[in-house]
Structure prediction request, 313 residues.
Amino acid sequence: YVLKDSNNSLDYVIKIVKRLYKNKKLKVLIVDDSSVARKFMEDILSLHNLQVFTAINSDETLSILEKNKDIKLMLIDENMPGMRGSDLVNEVRKIYTKEQMAIIGISSYSNSILTVEFLKRGANDFILKPFNKEEFCLRVMQNLEILEMFESQRIYATTDFLTGLYNRRFLFDIGEKLLENAKRNNLSISLAIIDIDNFKYINDTYGHLFGDFVLKTLAKILKDRFRAGDIVARLGGDEFCVMGVMGESSYNVFDSLRQKVSCYEFKDQDRSIKITLSIGISNRLEDKVELMLKNADKMLYKSKNLGRNIVSV
Ligand code: GH3
Prediction:
């Protein structure tokens, strides 16, 4: 079954996998009805930091996937009782995109039509038996690397670098989906702009680094305060945005946030300060996030004009 023993490719693979996924145990699923083949692949992959699952048919595969939604890579053999491997790829692709999971098709027949079948149904790669450890490792590594590239691109595109919150661009993307869903289900959506009062003074007095610390700490307070279904984003500078289903209670939600933050001590080893927030809320459901932001911005302007540390709706 094994053509040639590998050199130290596996260590190289594991090193890369550890770097890419920051030592998190990656999950891999092997689907093959041959116990020899399963053992061969399982032994290689589980040597180090990969958590390996095995299945012998499509039913077992789908049940493992149901329980383990974070499987990163699947190796699927073509010849299995019940369902062909390439058909199983088709099924798995209804659940996972290529950006979420890599699939490598495996078969012992050197048949180019089969390769095409696997790729057409959504496999990222294809490998013919018998294969050697080195080729096996390199293909696993390459596919995990590509997956990581997708993941880092996704993070760059959606996340604010300083605070780790969603960025303005992504707020527009998911905000629009939230609005569509609210319209369909007759839900009321609130959008609030939260702005730190006199933030320039904090930067000028305590330095830009301390200013960054205040922004990061406030971001964490916001993230902890709101529900998983709410959107918390940094609009830019010292402005944040929260969008979610709050209805009539939106004023109370944001006023209690305002009070909580005004009592909180932002302290590092050298100093401890308190800050206040001005908040503007828009409760009128619009088609576009941009319009809701515009309405909330008018209310924020009102809060600033009324003397700051105020919520307007
Ligand atoms: P107001 O109460 O009227 O909102 O006044 P303000 O000083 O909070 O608002 P202003 O818009 O004048 O100042 C915001 C400051 O935020 C100016 C800018 O240099 C600073 N800033 C923007 N981005 C960052 C950042 O990423 N880190 C730090 N430390 N400061 C930032």
The pocket of 3'-deoxy-guanosine-5'-triphosphate is lined by residues 162, 195-200, 203, 208, 211-212, 215, 237-238, 304, 308 (CB under 6 Å). The chain has a mean pLDDT of 90. Residues 108 and 129 are 4 Å apart (CA to CA).
